[in-house]
Amino acid sequence: MSTLLIAAAVGIALGILFQKGRFCFVHAFRDLFAFKDTRVTKGVIAATGLTMFFWSVAYALGYYQGFWTPGWGLTGLIGGFIFGIGMTYAGGCASGTLYRAGQGYLHFWLVLVSMGVGYAVFTVAFPTLQSLYFDPLTFGTGFTLFDSTPLPAPVVAVLFIAGFLAVYATVLGREGKGREKTKTPDAASVALAPSATVSGLRSLYDGTVEYLRGFTEIDDLRSAAKRPWDPRTAALGITVVAVVWFTQVSIVGVTGPESRWTAYLLQTVGIDSGSYEYWGSVLFAGDGVSITVDMVMIGFVIVGAFLAAFWSGDFRLRVPKRERLPNAVGGGFLMGVGSRLAPGCNIGNIYSGIAELSVHSFIAAAGIIAGVYVMTHWLYRDVGCAI
Amino acid sequence: MSTPEWEDVVEMPDELDDGTAEALAEEADEFQNMKGEMCPYPQVEAKKALSSLDHGDLLVQETDHVPSTENVPKAVEDEADAKVWRSGDGLYRIFLHKR
């Protein structure tokens, strides 16, 4: 019973944070490629890095329930790519679809149904895919870098985050320098300028200070809370919630529980979904098709997003344009199938998977981002992309 | 024309009150109904429309998609100045003045 209460609270909190922070991974990567908008990308990076650190501490202290580490191989790249194509075409990732369903978008309810069709088709094809796809393309058993070195997990996490920040700062610094060069072509100042990494770290530091100063400038907390939040603020909240979930239940996933919902709903209309190998023995692990705690959590994400949207004045029953139906149906179907072929969605692989340093998830994340890149270029074919 | 920068601090566009938004909507040189649309179509349509408008012209998008109020202005930030009106019940108007 208490686990169910935690599931409800975690789900509602995540729904509120996803909605207020517009925590959509399509937004995070599509807009980065299309016009170098990093607003949501920074939120995703902040949430992943912070979660990685606090999960590593919880793991080292023994306060955790388990990791999610599927076998690694090309399946992550292929399934991730299909999922990335699908979510960019649909206009929302797994978390974006959930929070917008709560916000009143009929489009994203249709995406959810289409994802359900994708899960079902995959499940029927699973025995064939097992021998033709998973067996040949999975190269090794999954593992997390947290326990594959003699170093304590928090040290591994800090090293990883430091390495990432160094690369990120170097890219930032190079961009900044490129900008200065085009403005003032002064050889002496370029020679005297600090290295790209140092100037990048400085601008990263300035950006963080500026972000924190933003909080002191809020004069009316209530109206500020009603406006959309900086995704980094949502990232802080998501980290807290994810740590609670990690210590009590598991890592945060979306499409696994959704696939279980599909099996459960089909069973309520008289289909013996438990007799299919993928649902019966893999997802429900032989325990029978019933409502599990992560399914409850995912359901309450929609409730939380509804509450946040309603309170903020952003709830509205939105009817999609007819020409967007292929996006919902086709995109949703590819998301359902892709997330099973990988396995895992953007939350399971980019957010949770990288935060738990699962080797499979690095491969799947690369596949998802490649899918977003290709689809973004197709959608922007008339006006062109920045990257 | 400058290219978009990687690390620009992205400010939210200024918000308009009901009266100003109503009056400004009358001056629109082009009006795009984006209700029921998904990203990134409003961004793409705004870019296309702005390229055929003249300096100082006003493009107005009416939308019910919340993310558009941020990423449409961001997508065309080199071509247009943006202001946003929020109805309070999930309908928004984006005002884009071509520079």
TrEMBL record, chain A:
Parts of the chain that traverse the membrane: 6-23, 44-64, 76-99, 106-133, 153-173, 234-256, 289-313, 362-380
Organism for this UniProt entry: Halorutilus salinus
A Gene Ontology cellular-component term: plasma membrane
Protein's cellular compartments: Cell inner membrane
NAD among keywords: no
Keyword Transport found: yes
Major subcellular site: membrane
PANTHER family documented for this protein: INNER MEMBRANE PROTEIN YEDE, SULPHUR TRANSPORT DOMAIN-CONTAINING PROTEIN
Coiled-coil ranges (or none): none
Protein name per Swiss-Prot or TrEMBL: YeeE/YedE family protein
Membrane topology field: Multi-pass membrane protein
Keyword set, alphabetical order: Cell inner membrane, Cell membrane, Membrane, Transmembrane, Transmembrane helix, Transport
TrEMBL record, chain B:
Transmembrane segments: none
Stored InterPro entries: TusA-like (IPR001455), TusA-like_sf (IPR036868)
Stretches assigned to the UPF0033 domain: 33-96
Pfam families attached to this UniProt entry: TusA (PF01206)
Protein name as catalogued: Sulfurtransferase TusA family protein
Provenance organism: Halorutilus salinus
Lineage: Archaea, Methanobacteriati, Methanobacteriota, Stenosarchaea group, Halobacteria
